[in-house]
Amino acid sequence: MLKKDLILKNPLRALEPETGPNAAPSRMGLVIARRGVGKTAMLVQFALDSLLRGNRVLHVSIGQKLEKTKAWYEDLFEDLSRSYRLDHAGQVHDEIARNRLIMTFKATAFSGPKLEERLNDLLYQDIFRPECMVIDGYDFESATRPQVQDLLDLTQAMSLHTWFSAVRHREDPRTSELGVPVPCDKFEDLFDTILLLDPEEKGIALRTLKDEFSDAAGKRKLILDPATFLVSTLDHQSPDKTNESGRQ
User: Fold this and answer.
1) Which residue of 60, 74, 105, 137 shows the fewest CB atoms closer than 10 Å?
2) Cα 144–214–207 angle (5° rounding)?
3) Low-confidence residues in the chain, pLDDT < 70
4) 3-class SS at 189?
5) Core vs surface per residue 123-144: b (16+ CB within 10 A) or e
6) What are the structural domains of the chain?
7) Is 32 within 8 Å of 64 (Cβ atoms)?
8) Chain-centre distance for alpha carbon 91
9) Are 54 and 21 in contact (CB under 8 A)?
């Protein structure tokens, strides 16, 4: 399969209909799940899809080492290219690797202003200008509304498509009217798309709680394949059912 065909056939088209580079306006998405259910896998697949579409991607990893974040990209790209029999996979891998930058923060050291400062350094030195950003490990439980608003303002100022991950606590059943679990319920209006990862018998279901592309939501039921953590539909799961990477 050619790269352009992989872009078109990617199940994420149900959530990101665009097949070319990002176009204005900017937007923000949120993936919510319990620990270990697949939040990082989802963010990396959004990042890989954006990279395949020709965008530059900044991956902000909070509380996770650089090597582990890189491993997610290597493992998921390998699974993706094998599952879809991607032609010239090595060449495609090298192309997208050049357009990805991973930025790490200690959990206690991250803040919106620090992120903005480091981004401005990249821009000022003409090192890297992203079109897409994923922020993995942001602490919504401790966050205030002005802090999340600042990240939205940054996203809009830089015309980014930004995806966040958030932890849902198993012991707290409270949700908003949209079904957004605490603590993210108080920020739901700041996001264009909100997804909930929900384990079920056939895999980890992607439940769309909020979607800016209202006519795209629900066309196909998306799941995370529990063997590979790849996004798929119920009628197309990865043929490789072994998961030797030990990912969590």
Assistant:
1) 74
2) 65
3) 213-220, 234-248
4) helix
5) eeeeebebbbbbbbbbebeebe
6) 3-7+26-233 (3.40.50.300)
7) no
8) 23
9) yes
The predicted pLDDT at position 68 comes to 96
Between β-strands 231-233 and 222-224, what pairing exists: parallel, antiparallel or unpaired? antiparallel
Strand partners, 134: 59, 163
Residue with tokens 């192309």: 95
Residues 6+ apart with CB under 8 A from 144: none
Please give the Cα distance from 142 to 98 (Å, whole number): 34
Question: Would you call 209 helix, strand, or coil by DSSP?
Answer: strand
Query: What tokens does 91 get?
Result: 């060449």
Cα–Cα distance for residue pair 157/103, rounded to 1 Å: 19
Tokens representing 236 are 């197309």
The pLDDT tens digits of the residues spanning 196-248 come to: 999 987 789 999 999 876 554 444 578 998 888 999 886 554 444 434 344 54
pTM of the model: 0.91
Structure tokens at 201: 């018998």
Cis preceding linkage at 17, omega within 30: no
Helix H or strand E encompassing 103: strand 100-105
| Rounded distance between C-alpha atoms, residue 38 and residue 206, angstroms | 10
Q: How far apart are CA 148 and CA 112, in angstroms?
A: 8
